[in-house]
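Here is one chain, start to finish.
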Amino acid sequence: MAEAGGEQQEIKRKTPFSVKFAIFMLMVTAGVFFPTTVLFCGCLIPTLVAALVDPYPQKTTWITVGCMNFAGAVPAWFSLWETGQKLTDALQLLMQPRTYIMAYGGAALGWVIYHNVTPFVARLMVMRHEKRLKDIDKRQRDLIRKWGQEVAGS
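Its structure:
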């Protein structure tokens, strides 16, 4: 009996080959483009923080913050590639306040978008559904007036 439970737990823990391969390729790519990896590790810290502090099960905060954070880090990335993609250049870019202002400013904009756009869209959806309910009630009253109380059902 105990063995069967152990086997079930072992089966659930197996990682698909495609995930293992993707992680392996990510590591190889990070090694090949090591200066870019170093630059992004310094610039994308707010994305990691957003992923760690997001209390919701959907974990969508990091996507919004991460996209804007990445957009802010792209100018530094292009500068690194223009200079030849050397580790010293990546470290030099990380020493410049402008790099952090751009990358972290993008992340801050991502937080603003996340905290303002989401409630705005939710309010729009609630208003739309409330209008739909009013339209249904009006249609039901019209049907009752035209056909009598029997069409209401109860």
